[in-house]
Specification:
alpha/beta, Rossmann fold, about 10% strand
Length: about 240
């Protein structure tokens, strides 16, 4: 146990010293506990760093989702992706539906869970990603940015479909989808059905090629129901009405 911890932590000096000790010359439990604390501390720091590097827009957890409010959405089934098995199969996920139904919430919850399991995650909106790609191209750093996007175990692209893209921007985003194809998993949230993605990318040929790659190994979930924000607004108005005559 102790030797394994020393090797895992790359504490080679301590390893050599430990191996030189006689069986009755050291307090085993104390040393084991110290090393375990060190291992836990490093593991916790790595998890915090992965969460920071993912750049989630806010903190979201599964516990704050009430499946009863929108029973048509299979939240329990979607939650299972937090275990990370789809990452090993390089599968993609697509959450499709109107705003306010929990698509981004689920994406963030999955991403955070995966960070805690040791996976690297990158979160961005479609518009933010396009801006980053354009800036990188102008500064001759596009290859470097692409490498970063490829290294992540999961790339989350949120809000695809809210802003139509120019031909140049569409081709930059297509490159991301194309390079990630068969290399790593993606999770896309969108307010548009797949046939309507042509409204975003413009070219029918480019859109068809992109969808073909993205959906080759992809689980698609259609979010149907009533907007959480709308439900909360109605609830707030009802509370005010009950107080103010």
């Amino acid at each position: 146990m102790i030797e394994k911890l020393l090797i895992d932590l790359k504490l080679l000096g301590a390893l050599h010293y430990y191996q030189s000790l006689s069986e009755d010359s050291h307090p085993e439990d104390l040393l084991k506990n110290l090393l375990q604390r060190e291992s836990d501390w490093r593991s916790d720091n790595k998890k915090k760093r992965r969460l920071q590097e993912a750049k989630f827009p806010y903190e979201r957890h599964w516990q704050s989702i009430d499946p009863k409010k929108n029973p048509k959405i299979p939240f329990e089934k979607i939650r299972k992706y937090s275990q990370g098995e789809f990452i090993h199969h390089k599968k993609n996920l697509c959450f499709m539906g109107a705003p306010g139904l929990g698509k981004t919430h689920c994406a963030v919850a999955i991403g955070r869970s995966l960070c805690e399991l040791g996976y690297s995650v990158k979160f961005t909106t479609a518009s933010q990603l396009v801006s980053q790609l354009k800036e990188a191209q102008e500064s001759l750093q596009l290859t470097k940015l692409m490498d970063k996007l490829l290294k992540a175990s999961l790339l989350i692209i949120d809000e695809l479909g809210f802003v139509p893209l120019s031909d140049h921007d569409a081709r930059l985003l297509f490159e991301v989808f194309s390079k990630r194809y068969d290399q790593g998993s993606m999770l896309v949230t969108t307010n548009l059905d797949l046939p309507k993605w042509v409204q975003v990318f413009g070219s029918k040929e480019l859109t068809t090629a992109l969808i073909d790659r993205f959906t080759h190994r992809c689980d698609i979930y259609v979010f149907e129901g009533e907007s959480y924000r709308f439900m909360e607004a109605k609830s707030a108005k009802a509370r005010v009405a009950a107080i103010v005559p």
